[in-house]
Amino acid sequence: AAIAALSQSGVAVEVVEETGSTNADLLARAATLSGPLLLVARQQTAGRGRAGRSWLSSSEGSLTFSLAWHFAGGLPRLTGLPLAIGVALADTLERLGVQVGLKWPNDVLRDGDKLAGILIETQAASQGGVWAVIGIGLNLLMPDELEAQIGRSVASLPWLARMDRDELMAALLDGLAGALREFERAGFAAFAARWNLRHAWQGETVTVLDGGTVLHEGSAAGVDDAGRLLLDTPEGRITVLAGDVSLRVK
Ligand code: ATP
Ligand code: BTN
């Protein structure tokens, strides 16, 4: 209730003390929703990451939430959505004084480490169109045990962790709702320039991986108006679609 009162978005908000996964919960309820809904878990015990990985979090140190949003168009219109969400998160964090970078397709980085992850899952809607469940995990404080479990260094924001959690959540919600309305109107093209401004790996040599397989290697040159990665390879410029591929810097 506090979050809804602090937000200008008009989006309904539910907060639960503990759940397995806010994405799983909203997907299970999508058929019953009548409008956008934000579900915030103070503690998430079975967080999902991309490609079947798990997302680790702690109740004091993380924000874990999902936003269910209905789109009238079909799935193809949603390519670029994770990138637009990255731009929305970056815009809001910058307004709060935190500079971040974006890694294609859907990570928010700080000083090269992962600060936030975005997982979008979709479901056909009975009224037509699709429900997108946009799940976001944001690291605020990262206990050493968690970082050890993740097995690599991750970013956190101890300074932002001191901010009132509901105010922070409301600010993020307003940024996301504004971005989603813009995305519905104008598509990813309206976000591409802002994404490219924050591209963390611009000009770096990267490999595109599908599981353990290297699909491409080249110099990362930002994204096009559809959110595809532009890669300059010895054979010329190619475009890469997101799907489940991931990037590594060489
Ligand atoms: P992606 O394909 O999503 O870009 P990746 O394979 O490039 O992921 P990273 O983005 O660097 O890898 O993420 C590191 C791994 O740690 C991922 O598997 C990620 O899901 C996992 N992880 C779990 N919890 C966290 C967390 N709280 N913060 C950062 N990473 C986490
Ligand atoms: C990734 O980078 O792999 C995506 C991580 C997404 C984590 C968030 S936390 C809230 C929501 N619920 C989940 O189970 N996952 C997302």
Question: What is this entry, summarized?
Answer:
The protein is of the alpha+beta class. It has seven helices and 14 strands.
Can you tag this structure with a few keywords?
2 domains; 250 residues; 14 strands; BirA Bifunctional Protein, domain 2; 7 helices; globular; binds adenosine-5'-triphosphate; seven-stranded mixed sheet; binds biotin; five-stranded antiparallel sheet; single chain; SH3 type barrels
Could you describe the 3D structure shown?
By secondary structure, the protein is of the alpha+beta class. It folds into 2 domains: 2-197, BirA Bifunctional Protein, domain 2, CATH 3.30.930; 205-249, SH3 type barrels. The protein is 27% helix and 36% strand. The chain has 7 helices and 14 strands. Strands 1-2-5-9-8-7-6 form a 7-stranded mixed beta sheet, sandwiched between helices. It has a 5-stranded antiparallel beta sheet with strand order 13-12-11-10-14. The termini are far apart. Bound molecules: adenosine-5'-triphosphate and biotin (BTN). Adenosine-5'-triphosphate (ATP) binds next to strand 8 and strand 9.
Helices and strands in order, then pairings?
Elements: H1 2-6, E1 12-19, H2 22-29, E2 37-44, E3 47-48, E4 54-55, E5 62-71, H3 81-95, E6 101-103, E7 107-110, E8 113-124, E9 130-139, H4 144-150, H5 158-161, H6 165-186, H7 192-197, E10 205-210, E11 213-223, E12 229-233, E13 236-240, E14 246-249
Parallel strand pairs: 1-2
Antiparallel strand pairs: 2-5, 3-4, 5-9, 6-7, 7-8, 8-9, 10-11, 10-14, 11-12, 12-13
The chain binds adenosine-5'-triphosphate (ATP) and biotin.
Adenosine-5'-triphosphate (ATP) is lined by residues 49-50, 53, 55-57, 107, 114, 117, 137, 139, 150, 152, 154, 246.
